């Protein structure tokens, strides 16, 4: 059996929204992970052998408060888009490789070792010996082929297909080895294989709808309650797991707590051991053994433009020149947001200050807007609580332009349903919302393709598809994909410069991710710079 990848396939996909609470008085990580007595041997990036683990409490329990709500499309790793379900899948599913949520290093997961390069366009991957799904069935090469087919097949419209456009064929060499044939050399293959989680073909085909809500994977945990009824997601140790990061507790319980006060009180009272999206006002209230971390990541607040109404790039640039970045980042976000000087955050390996950097220049903004002939701006914001203080500042900044500003807020799902609809397609000019595709990987190619390649974003939302700007950026990404090293980075930076000029969607700032956790009861917990929480490699003293 072989999978052939269409040469020109572009996938529909749905947004992933971030709901990160940011806080006053913290400019960097306030505390490292809590130490502990859990003993683990080091496992290198290419290791697949389970580490020598001395579990702190083999019957331990991890409890967490999660700010995200359940998505509407379940947990299927080929289609899920919600931050909560993606985080859950970090613990229950595996790709052939994985990117560690905390270290961001790629490692062999379901693969026995890292992909073996045969030549520039051929790689082989051998499955981990005796690997089984959580239902006890053995993992086969047929399952692997099926999993890739589900993502790559255009009929399935998987959002992940865009990240695999370099693959020509996926074939089974023998009972334990998969061969990847590439369209061209692509040095990021080890990282990209992680976007496809391996699922049991027989289970999915038997009842696809049921699988969506009762996933079966090869990760260290298995989900026993999807949280739909009681708003508590329950995980149990997967006793069939034999990979590099075994479960160090028997049970995990994630309480779905979108309300800031409820979540904070749960942390303060000890009801939970960790929470994400720490509200700014509550940050100073935590005391030992509770620690707070705020790691800088890619996650951003962006301005997205409807280019059917803001077709003139001068109008889009005017909005960005109107914003008071110092007030937004230093005062409102309390130093936990950094004004964007590039599509990528400073510190990213491919970062370079962009050709065009936006700062508050009201006179310039007014002049550009006048040249574009814009006399009104219709602003639509998502209602995520973590940037509630930013929204009135943005509104005030735009009103200072001397034009009519119409403002509205919607829940994230409602917002995108509206702008994706026929009635809403032209009923807005600027959307302000968060996003963080770095949950799938950190490389610049992936991050740019998320917004600047896909038809749902470029066509349905920005109405920018096949514009000269979009075609130019796509061409640069395609050129960069075939390069490596400094030449690849240089090509990405050309694309980044172009994006800074065209700005169909552009970051206002990149943000840090405040997390509170009990350093006494959680062992070897590692805060992450992504949305949600990760308990990979974490133990607990609580039962």
What topology emerges from the helices and strands here?
Layout: E1 2-4, E2 39-40, E3 53-54, E4 61-66, H1 83-92, E5 97-99, E6 106-108, E7 116-119, E8 122-126, H2 141-152, E9 167-172, E10 177-182, H3 189-192, H4 201-206, H5 208-213, E11 221-226, E12 232-237, E13 251-256, H6 260-269, E14 274-275, E15 290-305, H7 313-322, H8 325-332, E16 337-339, H9 362-372, E17 376-382, H10 390-399, E18 404-410, H11 412-420, E19 430-435, H12 444-452, H13 455-461, H14 468-481, H15 485-502, E20 505-518, E21 522-523, E22 539-540
Parallel strand pairs: 4-13, 4-14, 17-18, 17-19
Antiparallel strand pairs: 1-9, 2-3, 5-6, 7-8, 8-10, 9-10, 11-12, 12-13, 14-20, 15-19, 15-20, 16-20, 21-22
Helix pairs in contact: 7-9, 12-14, 14-15
Query: What amount of the residues lies in strands?
Result: 15-25%
Give the helix level as a range of percent.
Answer: 25-40%
Report the strand count: 22
CATH superfamily of the largest domain: Periplasmic binding protein-like II
Characterize the main sheet.
Answer: 11 strands, mixed
Low-confidence stretches: 1-53
- Annotation field: number of helices: 15
Q: What is the average per-residue confidence, as pLDDT, rounded to a whole number?
A: 89
Tell me the number of structural domains: 2
Structural class: alpha+beta
CATH class of the largest domain: Alpha Beta
What is the radius of gyration? 23 Å
CATH fold field value of the largest domain: D-Maltodextrin-Binding Protein, domain 2
- N-to-C terminal Cα separation, in Å? 47 Å
Q: Any idea what the CATH architecture of the largest domain is?
A: 3-Layer(aba) Sandwich
